[in-house]
Write a structure and sequence with these properties.
Blueprint: H1 3-10, H2 15-29, H3 32-41, E1 47-52, E2 57-66, E3 70-75, E4 81-85, E5 117-122, E6 127-136, E7 140-145, E8 148-153, E9 157-159
Antiparallel strand pairs: 1-2, 2-3, 3-4, 5-6, 5-9, 6-7, 7-8
């Protein structure tokens, strides 16, 4: 499924249309048939991938236990244990990206993930900066850089292609900065 095309179509919908569709999708995700379908394909100890909508990114995790409506997993990257709804499991290895590489469209919240490298234009100092996405807000993105934390409007963002990147590991103290 091409998520970008779906989102483009949904932009034409009214707020009520979106709400009504959201209600129908919520009910559909909770149907027992969908839960059983995932349970039949997954085994305890199996490594799966799941999509976290809050962070807008995918994680690898090991299945530890089956619940009635939640799957118990342990994330591979940090060993933390989570209980996730069965519908978050990506069994078909579906491409979860919404963005289309190489296009000239502005970056939106759907294009970003927590922990992703991103560049932005600092209009106050008239220079480009880069950092790591910490939080995805409705109108802006919180970004951690070597010099501090920034809240940046989407119109000032650009993708980081290559070069030295900042992972935040050496950050000791942080001054809250704000732009746009």
């Amino acid at each position: 499924m091409n998520y970008r095309d779906v989102l483009e179509t949904l932009k034409k919908a009214s707020a009520f249309d979106l709400y009504r569709l959201s209600c129908a999708i919520d009910r559909e995700m909770e149907r027992p048939e969908h839960i059983v379908a995932v349970q039949r394909q997954v085994r305890t100890g199996q490594v799966i991938r799941y999509f976290d909508g809050t962070e807008n990114r995918e994680y690898e995790a090991r299945v530890t236990k089956f619940g009635r409506s939640l799957l118990h997993v342990e994330r591979i990257d940090d060993g933390r244990r989570w209980r996730i709804p069965y519908y978050m499991v990506n069994l078909g290895e579906v491409d979860v990206s919404v963005s289309q590489p190489g296009n000239n469209k502005p970056i939106t919240a759907n294009d970003l993930s927590i922990g992703q490298q991103i560049g932005f234009y600092d209009k106050e100092r008239n220079q480009e900066r880069s950092g790591v996405v910490e939080r995805i807000n409705q109108k802006s993105v919180s970004i951690r850089t070597e010099t501090g934390r920034w809240r940046v409007a989407y119109c000032y963002l650009f993708p980081v292609i290559e070069g030295d990147t900042f992972d935040g590991a050496d950050l000791i103290s942080v001054a809250d900065n704000e732009t746009a």
